[in-house]
Amino acid sequence: MTAEPRKARPVATVLVALVLCALALVLTPLIGAVPLDLKEVFRGVEPAATIFFTLRLPRVLLAALAGGALATAGTVFQTLLRNDLATPFTLGVASGGSLGAVAAIHFGLTFTLLGLSPLPVAAFAGAALVVAAILGLVRLRGPSMESTTLLLAGVTVSFLCSATIMLLQYLSDFTATHRMIRWMMGGLDTVGYGPLLQALPFVLVGLAVIALQTGHLNQLLAGDLLAASRGVPVRRVRVTLLLAAALITAAVIAFTGPIGFVGLIVPHGARLLGGANHRALLPASFLGGAALLPVCDMIARTVIAPAELPVGVLTALLGAPFFLFILLGQGRGGR
Amino acid sequence: MLRVHALSFSYPRGPKVLDAIDLEVAPGEFVALLGPNGSGKSTLLSLLVGPEALGHHPWAGQLEIGGHDGRTLNTRARALQLSYVPQTVPVDLRLDVEGVVRLGRFPHRQPFGGDTADADRVVEEAMTACGVTPLRGRAYGTLSGGERQRVILAGCLAQQTPCLLLDEPTSALDLRHGLEALAVLATQARAGKAVLVATHDVNLAAQFCSRLVLLAEGRVVADGPPEQVLTREVLAQVYGVEVALIPVEGRRTPLVLPLHPIGP
Predict the structure, then answer these.
(1) Are A96 and A126 in contact (CB under 8 A)?
(2) Which domain holds residue B75?
(3) How many CB pairs under 8 A join A and B?
(4) Confidence of residue A282 (pLDDT cuts 50, 70, 90)
(5) pLDDT > 70: what percent of chain B?
(6) Given CB 3.0 to 4.6 Å as the disulfide criterion, which of A166, A254, B58, B183 pairs with A124?
(7) How many separate domains does chain A show?
(8) What's this model's pTM, rounded to 2 decimal places?
(9) Is residue B243 assigned to a domain?
(10) Which of A229, A275, A334 sits opposite B95 (nearest CB)?
(11) Residues of A in contact with B74 (CB under 8 A)
(12) For residue B236, is it within any domain?
């Protein structure tokens, strides 16, 4: 007798993710180098109120938005590319963003566009260019939008960006190189709600587009041929989803830098616990990411306080063992 | 009703895969598409399934699906006319059996709405017809190849289309399940559906199908009832094999037994 794998519990998974997300949002702003008391914060006692409202809360909200967006984008890319190892960065969105940021640092760009500083603008532009290049390459190859072609185009463009980044680093002075490396480690240090409010509209639009494609994503699970025979306009759906997932990724990393692992482990965790039906998988991934990243960031800013660890390091260090735990737990059930 | 006239197709810079095909499958007909590997069976089915299945390559000729022009039919309207079982069924689909069968209801769903009111009943009937009801809650990935094929077939039935296209639906099935799958399709045909199945199993095809269409190098070389198509001369010409035709009591057509290859 072969044992059955653990039964998927979609509703329970979404509810658990919701509770975890709510707990993370309420608790993590109170924890830090200076412990805060919620009563003092709301009574307006200084400096507690300022620390809470202008330092901690915007940072936690940005972390939640970034975590949720990256996890959702990871889910979409994994389904779209039929590849378990796909992440929001697989198609080169992150390396494009990094190239933009690195170039801005190297050339010492100083401008403001719609109230934005050069780094996020350059990062967003770099990511957008990469996506455009990939879509162009895929179109040149043929009229269909096959997963393998997409993946190969993405990996190739990624490598090209990485090489250019290395070149720029090599040509830059020490201070600039340090800033570049620091940017590429990802970080959530923010003051005020500016970055959050600037990223939010892009993320909301992208999430809405993805949510409207939930049924199509489920059909794509069965392969392009079956999906097509069920009435999914496969090529159009692929391009739409690719653009939406790239948009939310680019909007987030423009402000936070590429924060790895969230987009890989959260979707897998959600899928292992709640199954692959995107009706539950998408919300569970978003909420899971929005819970995980604030917690990682909280640890990153407290563990060696008053200094901070790059949050990307923490997501990998904490995420990998947690992910293995889920994976092995699943393995015990059969398969 | 499926009607194909003067249909030709080739991949860019490739040889002709389909060359002026004429084919018609009427409601209630169960037609088998036979032919050697590479004769164009799968390509013909993909072309019927739609431009998405064919990678958006251009083709020439006329195509009529359920009275609609196949060129102008949009993907969803087409999915309400015909359903399809591909040659290779996915193996890594992480849904349970009922979830996979339910995917077939997709073209019937309302935008922003959910399933139609009769969806549960239709899914249930489709699972019963294919004998997969006991597997309902199983993860698709844990099924055997034959079970997967039957689950995909059930999804196809749940789509409730007047035309059914199947690309080698019995290739992964054992003797009994192969017979049962074709019996299910024969029942569908008797209920008024147009069923077209590409297969290599000439004997099963002869036993269940009312008409056989034989393709070779992208052309229709024979089209008629089994006893007319399955002759030693035709099989020698198309497959390049010497066959023995063995009469079996209670069967209208003799059994085809390949003996040895002939010619170059």
Answers:
(1) yes
(2) 2-230
(3) 104
(4) very high
(5) 98
(6) A254
(7) 1
(8) 0.89
(9) no
(10) A275
(11) 233
(12) no
